[in-house]
User: Fold Mg-dependent DNase from Gonapodya prolifera.
Amino acid sequence: MATPLAAMKLVDIGVNLTDPMFRGVYHNKRAHADDFAHVLQRARDSNVAGMIITGGTLHESQEALEIAKSDRSLYSTVGCHPTRCKEFLSDPDRYTNKLLEVARAGMADGKVVAVGECGLDYDRLHFCPKDVQKRFFPYHFRLSRETGLPLFLHNRASTADFVQIMQEHSSSYTKGIVHSFTGSQEELDQLLAIGDGIYIGVNGCSLKTEENLDVLKRIPLDKLLLETDAPWCEIRPTHASFAYLSPPVPKDKKPSSKSKPMTDNADSGFIRRPKEKFQMGDMVKGRNEPCTMR
Assistant:
């Protein structure tokens, strides 16, 4: 018998808990009080038993590890996001060794569980050009090889180059998760063809259109992993997936004065308020959280 949704334990395999939004800071300006502890409690109340905090730079990886150490449900990754690969330029070997130090320190505590976020992003080349991304993406394979950790992967508008690099370095890793997948059926087939150790991660951004949903149905269940990518990638009323949430949230529903979890509610059962009307204990409208995993 299948486990009832309300009792199912979930793991958010990708959440950006280092983002200042979770401390009440938006675009370098404080909008409300730090409610990080409430974010974690809402996740627990929604049966999210584990969360993996993604590292996007050396500093962020260090920060993610420190946060992970603060709570038994938290884990982290170590790597450099493709849009920030310029950080390698001054001294690539030293930067890689520093990442390796963080990874090994975190593994000793049972907290670091993957190498990444790493890969290619051709949608935002104004942050980092293709040649720099392609040069330093492979540096992460050394980290995976020396630690035995799987890869937490980013692929945006770069599938051909991404697949080629993954295949060229296939002997340096055993597993990898291509997170936040939004591609076509052809791209899905190309990614899965890399090898048996490749998994696909989906979040709200993966479920925007009917085409997205058609492709989602074709991901083998033993290759499918779930994430929020919070504070980004929430499921919105304009998304094709919103109609499948059970039950849908009535558009005319008024928030009550208390924030109590409700069973099987599409909006996770927590009140959302604009950050300008912040109340401690309520979610912030437009800021995704791990509690939305259900």
User: Anything to note?
Assistant: The domain at 9-235+264-292 is CATH 3.20.20.140 (TIM Barrel). Residues 201 and 269 are 24 Å apart (CA to CA).
